[in-house]
Amino acid sequence: MKSLSANQLDAFQEFINIGVGRAASILNDMLESRISLKIPVIEVFDTAQLQQKLEKRFNGGSFSTVRLGFSGQFSGTAELLFPTESAATLICVLTGESPDSPDLDSVKIGTLSEVGNIVINGVMGSISNLLGQHLNYAIPIYLEDTIQNLFLSSRNGLNQTIFILAQTRFEIEELEIIGDIILIFEVSSFDALIKAIDQELGMPL
User: Fold this and answer.
1) Is residue 154 predicted with pLDDT exceeding 50?
2) pTM for the predicted model, two decimal places
Protein backbone atom coordinates (compact mmCIF):
# COMPACT_ATOMS: atom_id res chain seq x y z
CA MET A 1 0.00 0.00 0.00
CA LYS A 2 1.16 3.50 -0.77
CA SER A 3 1.98 5.67 2.24
CA LEU A 4 3.15 9.13 3.21
CA SER A 5 6.74 9.70 4.30
CA ALA A 6 7.38 11.30 7.70
CA ASN A 7 7.85 14.73 6.09
CA GLN A 8 4.75 14.33 3.92
CA LEU A 9 2.70 13.20 6.92
CA ASP A 10 3.92 16.13 9.02
CA ALA A 11 2.99 18.55 6.23
CA PHE A 12 -0.41 16.97 5.76
CA GLN A 13 -1.10 17.07 9.51
CA GLU A 14 -0.23 20.76 9.52
CA PHE A 15 -2.63 21.37 6.61
CA ILE A 16 -5.44 19.64 8.50
CA ASN A 17 -4.64 21.42 11.77
CA ILE A 18 -4.90 24.77 9.98
CA GLY A 19 -8.20 23.68 8.44
CA VAL A 20 -9.81 22.55 11.69
CA GLY A 21 -8.57 25.72 13.36
CA ARG A 22 -10.42 27.78 10.78
CA ALA A 23 -13.51 25.61 11.18
CA ALA A 24 -13.42 26.02 14.98
CA SER A 25 -13.23 29.81 14.55
CA ILE A 26 -16.33 29.78 12.34
CA LEU A 27 -18.24 27.54 14.77
CA ASN A 28 -17.23 29.73 17.71
CA ASP A 29 -18.61 32.79 15.91
CA MET A 30 -21.90 30.97 15.27
CA LEU A 31 -22.41 29.55 18.77
CA GLU A 32 -22.29 30.72 22.37
CA SER A 33 -20.24 27.68 23.43
CA ARG A 34 -16.53 27.75 22.69
CA ILE A 35 -15.53 24.85 20.44
CA SER A 36 -11.99 23.56 20.09
CA LEU A 37 -11.21 21.03 17.36
CA LYS A 38 -8.04 19.00 17.84
CA ILE A 39 -6.42 16.40 15.58
CA PRO A 40 -4.30 14.11 17.75
CA VAL A 41 -3.17 11.67 15.05
CA ILE A 42 -3.31 11.10 11.29
CA GLU A 43 -2.89 7.66 9.71
CA VAL A 44 -3.09 6.17 6.21
CA PHE A 45 -5.02 2.92 5.63
CA ASP A 46 -6.27 0.60 2.98
CA THR A 47 -9.85 -0.71 3.16
CA ALA A 48 -9.27 -3.70 5.43
CA GLN A 49 -7.07 -1.73 7.82
CA LEU A 50 -9.60 1.09 8.10
CA GLN A 51 -12.48 -1.28 8.82
CA GLN A 52 -10.47 -3.05 11.52
CA LYS A 53 -9.36 0.26 13.05
CA LEU A 54 -12.83 1.77 13.25
CA GLU A 55 -14.57 -1.38 14.44
CA LYS A 56 -12.00 -1.75 17.23
CA ARG A 57 -12.10 1.91 18.17
CA PHE A 58 -15.88 2.22 18.28
CA ASN A 59 -16.89 -1.38 19.13
CA GLY A 60 -18.84 -1.86 15.91
CA GLY A 61 -21.63 0.58 16.80
CA SER A 62 -23.77 2.73 14.53
CA PHE A 63 -22.60 6.07 13.17
CA SER A 64 -23.75 9.41 11.88
CA THR A 65 -21.69 10.92 9.07
CA VAL A 66 -21.61 13.90 6.76
CA ARG A 67 -20.11 13.07 3.35
CA LEU A 68 -18.87 15.62 0.84
CA GLY A 69 -17.34 14.85 -2.54
CA PHE A 70 -14.59 16.99 -4.04
CA SER A 71 -12.93 17.07 -7.44
CA GLY A 72 -10.00 18.78 -9.12
CA GLN A 73 -6.38 17.73 -9.70
CA PHE A 74 -7.00 15.26 -6.91
CA SER A 75 -10.53 14.10 -6.18
CA GLY A 76 -12.31 11.92 -3.66
CA THR A 77 -14.65 12.08 -0.69
CA ALA A 78 -14.33 13.65 2.74
CA GLU A 79 -16.41 12.43 5.66
CA LEU A 80 -16.97 13.66 9.20
CA LEU A 81 -17.98 10.64 11.25
CA PHE A 82 -19.49 10.47 14.74
CA PRO A 83 -20.55 7.51 16.87
CA THR A 84 -24.29 7.84 17.60
CA GLU A 85 -23.79 8.90 21.25
CA SER A 86 -21.26 11.59 20.34
CA ALA A 87 -23.56 12.88 17.60
CA ALA A 88 -26.49 13.14 20.04
CA THR A 89 -24.33 14.91 22.65
CA LEU A 90 -23.05 17.36 20.04
CA ILE A 91 -26.59 18.16 18.87
CA CYS A 92 -27.78 18.75 22.45
CA VAL A 93 -24.89 21.11 23.14
CA LEU A 94 -25.30 23.04 19.89
CA THR A 95 -29.10 23.31 19.89
CA GLY A 96 -30.01 23.21 23.59
CA GLU A 97 -32.35 20.27 22.96
CA SER A 98 -32.79 17.69 25.73
CA PRO A 99 -31.42 14.18 24.96
CA ASP A 100 -34.95 12.76 25.33
CA SER A 101 -36.61 15.51 23.28
CA PRO A 102 -38.93 14.24 20.52
CA ASP A 103 -37.56 17.03 18.31
CA LEU A 104 -33.94 15.86 18.57
CA ASP A 105 -34.02 13.70 15.44
CA SER A 106 -35.66 16.43 13.39
CA VAL A 107 -32.88 18.93 14.10
CA LYS A 108 -30.03 16.40 14.01
CA ILE A 109 -29.67 16.09 10.24
CA GLY A 110 -29.62 19.81 9.56
CA THR A 111 -27.29 20.61 12.46
CA LEU A 112 -24.76 17.86 11.79
CA SER A 113 -24.83 18.61 8.06
CA GLU A 114 -23.99 22.25 8.80
CA VAL A 115 -21.19 21.32 11.22
CA GLY A 116 -19.83 18.73 8.79
CA ASN A 117 -19.91 21.18 5.91
CA ILE A 118 -17.98 23.78 7.95
CA VAL A 119 -15.34 21.31 9.17
CA ILE A 120 -14.84 19.51 5.86
CA ASN A 121 -14.68 22.76 3.87
CA GLY A 122 -12.20 24.11 6.40
CA VAL A 123 -9.96 21.07 6.01
CA MET A 124 -10.21 20.72 2.24
CA GLY A 125 -9.99 24.49 1.75
CA SER A 126 -6.77 24.52 3.76
CA ILE A 127 -5.30 21.66 1.73
CA SER A 128 -6.27 23.17 -1.63
CA ASN A 129 -5.08 26.69 -0.71
CA LEU A 130 -1.73 25.61 0.74
CA LEU A 131 -1.05 23.32 -2.22
CA GLY A 132 -2.28 25.88 -4.76
CA GLN A 133 -4.97 23.54 -6.10
CA HIS A 134 -8.57 24.46 -6.96
CA LEU A 135 -11.25 22.01 -5.80
CA ASN A 136 -14.95 21.79 -6.57
CA TYR A 137 -17.36 20.52 -3.94
CA ALA A 138 -20.59 18.54 -4.05
CA ILE A 139 -23.57 19.10 -1.76
CA PRO A 140 -23.01 17.43 1.65
CA ILE A 141 -24.96 14.23 2.33
CA TYR A 142 -26.03 13.00 5.79
CA LEU A 143 -26.10 9.24 6.49
CA GLU A 144 -26.62 6.90 9.45
CA ASP A 145 -25.53 3.25 9.37
CA THR A 146 -22.96 0.74 10.59
CA ILE A 147 -19.28 1.00 9.62
CA GLN A 148 -19.49 -1.87 7.15
CA ASN A 149 -22.54 -0.48 5.35
CA LEU A 150 -21.58 3.15 5.67
CA PHE A 151 -18.07 3.02 4.25
CA LEU A 152 -17.35 -0.35 2.75
CA SER A 153 -20.33 -2.17 1.27
CA SER A 154 -21.55 0.83 -0.74
CA ARG A 155 -18.33 1.32 -2.71
CA ASN A 156 -16.83 -0.41 -5.71
CA GLY A 157 -13.13 -0.96 -6.35
CA LEU A 158 -12.19 -0.47 -2.71
CA ASN A 159 -8.91 -2.30 -3.16
CA GLN A 160 -7.75 0.71 -5.17
CA THR A 161 -8.75 3.20 -2.50
CA ILE A 162 -6.57 5.02 0.05
CA PHE A 163 -8.05 6.32 3.30
CA ILE A 164 -6.50 9.09 5.41
CA LEU A 165 -7.95 8.98 8.93
CA ALA A 166 -7.71 12.04 11.18
CA GLN A 167 -9.02 11.25 14.66
CA THR A 168 -10.71 14.34 16.00
CA ARG A 169 -11.79 15.65 19.39
CA PHE A 170 -14.52 18.29 19.66
CA GLU A 171 -13.94 19.97 23.01
CA ILE A 172 -17.01 21.93 24.08
CA GLU A 173 -17.21 23.29 27.61
CA GLU A 174 -14.94 20.51 28.85
CA LEU A 175 -16.91 17.82 27.00
CA GLU A 176 -14.83 15.59 24.73
CA ILE A 177 -16.90 14.47 21.76
CA ILE A 178 -14.99 12.08 19.55
CA GLY A 179 -15.23 11.91 15.79
CA ASP A 180 -13.17 11.17 12.71
CA ILE A 181 -12.35 13.05 9.54
CA ILE A 182 -11.81 10.52 6.76
CA LEU A 183 -10.38 11.54 3.39
CA ILE A 184 -10.87 8.95 0.64
CA PHE A 185 -8.81 8.92 -2.54
CA GLU A 186 -8.47 6.67 -5.55
CA VAL A 187 -4.81 5.69 -6.04
CA SER A 188 -4.31 8.11 -8.94
CA SER A 189 -5.68 11.01 -6.90
CA PHE A 190 -3.55 10.00 -3.91
CA ASP A 191 -0.49 10.06 -6.18
CA ALA A 192 -1.46 13.58 -7.34
CA LEU A 193 -1.84 14.66 -3.71
CA ILE A 194 1.62 13.33 -2.80
CA LYS A 195 3.14 15.06 -5.84
CA ALA A 196 1.56 18.38 -4.81
CA ILE A 197 2.85 17.96 -1.23
CA ASP A 198 6.34 17.21 -2.53
CA GLN A 199 6.25 20.35 -4.67
CA GLU A 200 5.19 22.38 -1.64
CA LEU A 201 8.03 20.87 0.41
CA GLY A 202 10.53 21.49 -2.38
CA MET A 203 11.32 17.80 -2.70
CA PRO A 204 12.54 16.29 -6.00
CA LEU A 205 9.78 14.67 -8.04
Assistant:
1) no
2) 0.86
